[in-house]
Amino acid sequence: MDKQLTHVENQHVLHSSIFNQTLRDWQTLKTEITPRNLMYPVFIIENDDSVEPISSMPGVSRYGINKLKHHLQPLIEKGLSSILVFGVIDKLPKDPLGTNADSQENPVIRALPSLRTAFPTLTIACDVCLCPYTSHGHCGVLFPDGTINNPASIQRIKEIAVSYAKAGAHIVAPSDMMDGRIGSIKQGLAEHDLRHKVAVLSYTAKFASGFYGPFRDAAKSQPAFGDRKCYQLPPGSTGLALRAAKRDVAEGADMLMVKPGLSYLDIMKQVKEKYPEYPMFVYQVSGEYAMIYHAAKAGALDFRSALSEVMVSLRRAGADVIISYFTPVVLDWIQLKSKI
Ligand code: PBG
């Protein structure tokens, strides 16, 4: 017979809450991963019938629209509900203003109507940026001395966002980090009567990160000179991240994002706690993908348990939606689990 227990002693027993799977699930419901918690980034190229594997991101490819539709179809059957689209150009010329970001030949502009028709239930977000389309590879319009021309940049970003919205994007997601771009885009959408029909997902706290390397290869958007430290946030700057969130909320952002994920969990938690009424997105970026992929391939860690743990940690830190190149694999896991 046990001694008479105090309440405190009872509270200190945790194992009684986790002795089977159902009990463990009850402790972790807020970190569940369902298809609604995932957004899948995809790269669209000019040639409609090509697939180009990306060597720095094994398992990820750039697709022409016809191939992309084939790639997406089974994923949508597994519950995929949203994608984030990036355009990549090779043959179309790049110039200082990024003219081909929203020309009629732009692969995203061309693909949107066909994606909307093929997948009526799919929510389509478009990354809005200049870097894949500018000759200098920077995310804004530059003055002759190479510094950012802010008014010209946010004017251009607004035009591109409106073009994607007109072509069928449900969401426009500016990743350029120029001051004032959310307000400018909102203004542009209003001028074209799209304010009520298109949402703005702000890359709010986007850090100048070493984890974007494989993406720049994937999107062919490496800066021709210099780096992005004058417009992306310094990794240590919690204050700027919070100020950016405050500014984007004030300018009318519909949803907020922190990027990258794993190294910025504390930032995400703080932004979510400050703005709980806004859906919080996190971008598990190309370098995070490569890191897990290669570590698992080298046998250093078990792929499924490591990736699941990272996904749960992103949710635990406040992410409502995880933007991940691993989405196809995770959709498979979700499906298998629901069959058990
Ligand atoms: C472009 C952009 C980048 C990413 C998304 N949009 C790269 C950058 O800012 O250098 C990174 C995504 C990834 O690494 O997966 N502005």
TrEMBL record:
PROSITE patterns attached to this UniProt entry: D_ALA_DEHYDRATASE (PS00169)
Active site: K206, K259
InterPro entries membership: ALAD, ALAD_AS, Aldolase_TIM
Transmembrane stretches, start-end: none
Pathway the protein acts in: Porphyrin-containing compound metabolism; protoporphyrin-IX biosynthesis; coproporphyrinogen-III from 5-aminolevulinate: step 1/4
Gene Ontology MF terms: porphobilinogen synthase activity; zinc ion binding
Function: Catalyzes an early step in the biosynthesis of tetrapyrroles. Binds two molecules of 5-aminolevulinate per subunit, each at a distinct site, and catalyzes their condensation to form porphobilinogen.
Known partners and oligomeric status: Homooctamer; active form. Homohexamer; low activity form.
Name recorded for this polypeptide: Delta-aminolevulinic acid dehydratase
Species: Zophobas morio
Origin organism lineage: Eukaryota, Metazoa, Ecdysozoa, Arthropoda, Hexapoda
